Structures are given as C-alpha cells and as structure tokens.
C-alpha cells in the first residue's frame, strides 16, 4: 500500500477510536462509568503524546502522516482490548458488545485489511509485553479478519495501560518502543 493509502487507513482507524470514545460519553454512568472512560482516554492521550509534535498535530487535524499508522492500529487494539476485558462496573457487558460490534473495520477494502493484518503482525513480532503481544495477535480473530484464533497459549486477559507496559520501576522508559 502507498504512503497515501497508509494515511487514509490511519485516518479511518483513528476515526474508529475517536467514535468509540465519543459513543461511551453518551451512555449513563450506570452503563459506562465515566471515571473508567477518563482513564482509557488518558492512556490513549499518553500514547499520542509520545508522537513527534508534527505527526500528532497532523493526526489530530485529520491529515495523518502515514508514519503514524502503526500507532493508530495500536490504539485501536488497545481500546478493543480494554472494552473486551473491562469489568461490568466499568462498562455494562451489553454496551461493551454494542461498542465492539460498532468498530468500523467491516468497511475496509481488501487492500486495507491486508495492510492492517501486515502491521498487526509486525507490531506483535516486535512487542515485548506478553499480554499486549497476545492481544495484537488475537485482534484479527476477535474482529473477524481471520477465521483461526492464534495458536498462542491464551493468557488470563486483563487490560494493561500503555504507560504501565513500558515504564520501569520509577516510571522511566525501560528502553521499549511503542512502534516498530
């Protein structure tokens, strides 16, 4: 896929992430806990803050640099992972299912799906955090992009925020990268 194609895919997938976050704001607090949503928003914002300012500004303006595609795919995987593993008190299970079913990857072209799968493979291969590596490999199955579930041994699935995945004991970077 071309750089323009990557930019289009990044814009589409970033839109999916933003729509999920926006839709959660429209549910009453007994169905979607606003404190939990604020927490996942902080995690998503933290990831975006790691981008160079120019790339972050372009993404937020709707004209993403193709180089942010892997980051945007990671955000989508993270929000789906969070929704799939959050507690019933954070998001009502029926609401979580509705939100997960609304993720707009069904409308992707064949080439966009292939590119998504390709980058997910690269992200999983370079991911050092075991649970996130599993989620990157599980995402295509969970979203209906592939038929077979990963062969990996299925861990106990629990959300781990990105800032906790790469932070050392004092919150310093442990030398891990968010991007391949």
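^ Assign residues to that structure.
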């Amino acid at each position: 896929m071309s750089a323009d194609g990557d930019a289009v895919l990044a814009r589409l997938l970033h839109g999916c992430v933003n729509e999920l976050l926006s839709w959660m704001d429209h549910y009453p607090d007994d169905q979607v806990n606003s404190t939990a949503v604020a927490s996942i928003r902080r995690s998503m914002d933290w990831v975006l803050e790691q981008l160079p300012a120019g790339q972050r500004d372009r993404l937020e303006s709707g004209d993403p640099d193709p180089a942010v595609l892997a980051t945007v795919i990671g955000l989508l995987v993270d929000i789906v992972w969070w929704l799939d593993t959050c507690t019933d008190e954070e998001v009502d299970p029926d609401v979580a299912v509705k939100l997960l079913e609304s993720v707009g990857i069904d409308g992707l072209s064949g080439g966009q799906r292939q590119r998504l799968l390709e980058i997910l493979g690269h992200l999983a291969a370079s991911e050092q955090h075991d649970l996130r590596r599993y989620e990157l490999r599980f995402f295509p199955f969970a979203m209906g992009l592939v038929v077979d579930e990963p062969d990996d041994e299925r861990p106990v699935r629990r959300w781990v925020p990105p800032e906790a995945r790469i932070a050392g004991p004092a919150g310093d970077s442990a030398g891990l990268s968010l991007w391949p």
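The helical segments are 3-25, 34-49, 53-60, 69-85, 93-101, 110-126, 130-142, 162-166.
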